Amino acid sequence: MCGIVGYIGNKKATSLLLDGLKKLEYRGYDSAGFCVLDDNQFCLIKKKGKVSELEAQTQKISIGGSIGIAHTRWATHGAPNEINAHPHLDCTGNIAIVHNGIIENYQALKTALKKEGHKIISQTDSEIIAHLVEKFYQNGNLENAVASTIKCLEGTFGLLVLDKNQAKIVAVKKGSPLLLGIGKKQMFIASDASAVISQTKKIVYLDDNEIVSVTYDGYTIKNLQGQLVDKKIVQLKFTIDQIEKRGFKHFMQKEIFWQPQAIENTLRGRISKNRVKLSLKLNPKEINRIIITACGTSWHSALIGKYLIEKLTGIPTEVDYASEFRYRDPIIKKNDLVIVISQSGETADTLSALKEAKQKGAKTLGIINVVGSTIAREVDSGIYLYAGPEIGVASTKAFTCQVTALILLANYLKSGDKEILAELVKIPQKVSLALKLSGKIRHIAEKFKESKNFLYLGRNVNFPVALEGALKLKEISYIHAEGYPAAEMKHGPIALVDENMPVVFIAPKDNTYLKIISNMEEIKARGGKIIAIVNSTDSKIKNLADYIIKVPKTLDILSPIINVIPLQLLAYHIADLKNLNVDKPRNLAKSVTVE
Ligand code: G6P
User: Fold this and answer.
1) Catalytic residue selected from 2, 35, 43, 401
2) Which fold does the domain 3-236 belong to in CATH?
């Protein structure tokens, strides 16, 4: 993971680099650093901890210079400390690098470089890159040195190299995202657009093995053979407002409360006269089987997708963790469609799974939020969520928009279901009503914030919602939580139930309602505390549950979008009441770009 940003222009580099790092901090936040070329000297500052700590350190000194590179880290190799923080230097101190990704063969390269006399001081896989550039640097040709360096590297990288002697940044990527931002008399190279959007909306998305060279005079992009590559400049559509908190205490809170607008954006222009309009390169009649693959919260959407697609289209649908799919030599047949779901469009395992599927001849379709992301560019066709940037590490609005997109897709594959589509357009309004429960849920959160364990139970299409509720709680409150199909509870988790165990039931009035009531009785008999998410018309469960949360009724198939809202709020309020870092929970990163 990690976030990288480089700057060259007519302003002070430090403040723009720090600003960029703050926007990228969701990618990693255990240490940060920058290297600025000030008066022909490198000014290198690194700090353990968050970007704010690096910023505080820099306020004590005056730094000039209008070219530099910066990094926010999520440790993979070597503890989070100042030595392992980026940028890293070569032995001469003339080359500085920042790296996002993992160099898989770094041990062998490190041993060889040490034999050649290089002094390697960190435990990272990244530092060897600076020494390789030093080794291959000849006649001031930094581009050639970088090209030779990457030929030695196995793994993934987004890489920025700063040369003290020529005020130049050379950048290259393989498997990790990187883009060039072109402003007025200034240029940026960054892991993603959030780092540059306050300065420019003109973006060039870089492809693997393209060598970008940026100086005060402009930029060139060449392939590994040294030929110039003509790249399209793309105009970004999202605004700076969309990535600021706008009065909310946390990004996660803002993202939870903006779900009605986000879902409207996913739906906009896609339903007309009981039909779903999507421009997809596939013929629904030719699909024999669907495989959906994803990670984390997106994998939970995928599970809901299986229920939806099988029910609405009759097409057999399987779901796989992207990391498992990739390595188990999956069987792909001629008319298989592989759907990848990813908020960021950059998750390394999902990207690898997609490549595996393509290589085996599958048709591919992406459900992606970040426009122009690597996965979005690799799939045959796709559905963008248009949910706006999601900054909180724990995914919320992307989840509800992914489920919305899957419902659209299911209705596209089969001729649209009039009743479902009519109800789908009312969903944003119903989500707004569910959000009004926030105060009540905070009160429940007060009661349970010290709990050590939670159980989340649901059935059918709401079983993945139970998984998602448990994941949200684990991610941001550090309380152990498990999601289970309610009936399976008897085969293990019930052994854990006592008066200290809160059990969250998702209990809409569907065809499993009476069974869920029996499961509640079983929990109650063992002293467990029941929090029940029920429909607004429910009257039965109040005698069984300790806390009742009534959400608007909708069609069974659409109910995950409504039922997940109180679960997101419960996790959010518990974490906030515990004064935890809601947006940047420990050890997690928003975009997992390592396998
Ligand atoms: C990380 C994030 C999760 C996200 C998962 C998959 O674990 O913290 O919120 O669900 O990656 O990310 P993607 O961008 O592929 O949906």
Assistant:
1) 2
2) Glutamine Phosphoribosylpyrophosphate, subunit 1, domain 1 (3.60.20)
Ligand 1 close to Cβ of residue 296 (< 6 A): yes
Q: What pLDDT digit, counting tens, does each position of 125-164 carry? A: 999 999 999 999 999 999 999 999 999 999 889 999 999 9
What is the per-residue burial (b if ≥16 Cβ within 10 Å, else e) of 145-179? bbbbbbebbebbbbbbbbbbeebbbbbbbbbbbbb
Q: What are phi and psi of 136, to 5 degrees?
A: -90, 0
Pick the catalytic residue from 23, 47, 529, 590. 590
Give the global pTM. Answer: 0.79
CATH number 3.40.50.1820 is the correct assignment for the domain at 245-425: no
- 535 ligand 1 Cβ < 6 A: no
Ligand 1 proximity of 295 Cβ (cutoff 6 Å): yes
Whether residue 35 lies in the annotated active site: no
CATH number of 433-584: 3.40.50.10490
Which DSSP string do the residues of 475-527 spell out, in sequence order? HHH--EEEEEEGGGGGGTGGGG-STT-EEEEE--SSTTHHHHHHHHHHHHHTT
Ligand 1 contact via 393 beta carbon (within 6 Å): yes
pLDDT reading at 80 higher than 90: no
Q: Rg of the chain's alpha carbons, rounded to an integer?
A: 25
- DSSP letter string over 165-203? TTTEEEEEEEBS--EEEE-SSEEEEESSGGGTTTT--EE
Instruction: In the chain, list all ranges with CATH 3.40.50.10490.
Output: 245-425, 433-584
Residue 497 has pLDDT above 90, yes or no: no
Q: Whose CA is nearest to atom 5 of ligand 1?
A: 296
347 in ligand 1 pocket by Cβ < 6 Å? Answer: yes
- Assess contact for 159 and 6: CB atoms under 8 A: no
How many whole angstroms from 393 Cα to the centroid of ligand 1?
A: 8
Q: What does the DSSP assignment read for 224-262? A: TTS-B-----EE----GGGGS-TT-SSHHHHHHHTHHHH
Ligand 1 atom with the smallest distance to the CA of 375 is: 15
C-beta 350 within 6 A of ligand 1: yes
Q: Which residues touch 111 (CB under 8 Å, ≥6 apart)?
A: none
Give the ligand 1 atom nearest the CA of 347: 15
Q: Please tell me if the CB atom of residue 344 comes closer than 6 angstroms to any atom of ligand 1.
A: yes
Residue nearest to atom 8 of ligand 1 (CA): 590
Task: Name the residue at shortest CA distance from atom 3 of ligand 1.
Answer: 296
For every residue of 561-578, DSSP letters joined together read HHHHHHHHHHHHHHHHHT
Q: How far is CA 55 from CA 43, 52, 146, in A?
A: 14, 5, 30
Annotated active-site residue 50? The verdict is no
